[in-house]
Amino acid sequence: MSAYPTAANKHRTTRLLNIKTESPTVKTFTFKDKQCAKAKPGQFLMLWIPGIDEIPLSILDADKNGTVSVAVKKVGEATKALHELKAGETIGVRGPFGNSFTVKKGKILMVGGGTGLAPLLFLAKKLALEKAKIFMVMGAKTREELLFKEVFEKICGKENLVATTEDGSYGVKGLATTPLERILAKEKLDIIYTCGPEKMMRKVFDLAETRGIAVEASLERLMRCAIGLCGSCVIGKYRVCRDGPVFTVNQLREVKGEFGVSKRDFDGKLIPLG
Ligand SMILES: Cc1cc2nc3c(=O)[nH]c(=O)nc-3n(C[C@H](O)[C@H](O)[C@H](O)COP(=O)(O)OP(=O)(O)OC[C@H]3O[C@@H](n4cnc5c(N)ncnc54)[C@H](O)[C@@H]3O)c2cc1C
Ligand code: FES
User: Fold this and answer.
1) Could you tell me which CATH class the domain 107-272 is placed in?
2) Whether domain 5-96 has CATH 2.40.30.10
3) DSSP letter at 116?
4) Atom 29 of ligand 1: nearest residue by CA position
5) pTM greater than 0.85
6) What average pLDDT does this structure show over 190-194?
7) Could you tell me the distance, in angstroms and rounded to a whole number, from the CA of residue 66 to the centre of ligand 2?
8) Cα separation, 217 vs 189, whole angstroms
9) Beta strand 133-140 with 161-165: parallel, antiparallel or unpaired?
10) In this predicted structure, what is the pLDDT of residue 4?
């Protein structure tokens, strides 16, 4: 028995409609796919680069007209091959997979880094429709790698966005977690959403725990099947592809020993997080 509706897990081919360079290492790819166009913020898809590999990617945007976007950082063989594709070329898609962020009203803080900003942008667009008040902390290594800053500024308001860069080329020098204590001391928040490097998310979780604030974090693990069968993506008792990728504060507490600490490699061995 399949864990997912056949329609989501069925492999489809489609063509790249548009490719946009977002930073020296990140490009946004847009294509048509009816199934993934129904996705909710936080869900992911499996994108097949013909002849190379199939990789998990968060959905950056999904439109009723059937258009879907993903933002991809060039890190290895598959993402490099994807970056070399041109509009009109064929890719494969499965999904959408996994759960999604809960869309809450009220006072919200988002903390994102790198391509972790992609699902948060999708979420921010939905939260804005609910008239939520959104504070945003976004981090990157350098100014050029601060993804979607202008769009976030439009949604949250410039005064509610803090950018951090590790080299100090823009905003606050340091990590995305640097301005957090100040914000947490000042604002009474209803929930924090976070996505990005796992050590950053662990720090967000620890800070929120001491103040009793709800957190939802979107985790990454190695993924192959994406439907809960192969076990590549386990963390504690959970399979990230099916039980996540979005985890609540209670679930994060259950996997505290691994969250921000270790992950499984391609052989299933626990290795320290880089
Ligand atoms: C739920 C989820 C959402 C993701 N969303 C995004 C996104 O929006 N944008 C983005 O740029 N990246 C995203 N990633 C990471 C992306 O899947 C990897 O960067 C990609 O698979 C690397 O493939 P590669 O062949 O280029 O690199 P490789 O050289 O094969 O690997 C580089 C590193 O990427 C990771 N990786 C490799 N294969 C996989 C795999 N099958 N599953 C998970 N991680 C892998 C490993 O940490 C590895 O060390 C996401 C991963 C997950 C699990
Ligand atoms: S990727 Fe196979 S169980 Fe999650």
Assistant:
1) alpha beta
2) yes
3) G
4) 76
5) yes
6) 97
7) 26
8) 16
9) parallel
10) 67
Phi then psi for residue 263, to 5 deg, are -145, 170
Pocket of ligand 2 (CB under 6 A): 223-226, 228-233, 239, 241
First vs last Cα of the chain: how many Å apart?
Answer: 37
Query: Tokens in use for 251?
Result: 């679930």
How do the domains of the chain map onto residue ranges?
A: 5-96, 107-272
Q: What is the mean pLDDT of residues 45-67?
A: 96
Assess contact for 217 and 246: CB atoms under 8 A: yes
Q: Widest CA span of the chain, in angstroms? A: 52
The CA 78 to ligand 1 mean position distance, Å, reads: 9
- Three-state secondary-structure class, residue 197: coil
User: What is the edge-to-edge ordering of all strands in the sheet holding 44-49?
Assistant: 53-58, 44-49, 90-97, 12-21, 26-32, 67-73, 61-62
Distance CA 3, CA 54 (A): 19
Is 203 touching ligand 1 by the criterion CB < 6 Å? no
CA-CA distance, 89 to 230, in Å (whole number)? 30
- Length of the chain measured in residues: 274
Q: Tokens in use for 88? A: 């009109």
Ligand nearest the Cα of residue 220 is 1
241 in contact with ligand 1, CB cutoff 6 A: no
Per-residue pLDDT of 65-106, as tens digits, reads: 999 999 999 999 999 999 999 999 999 999 999 999 999 889
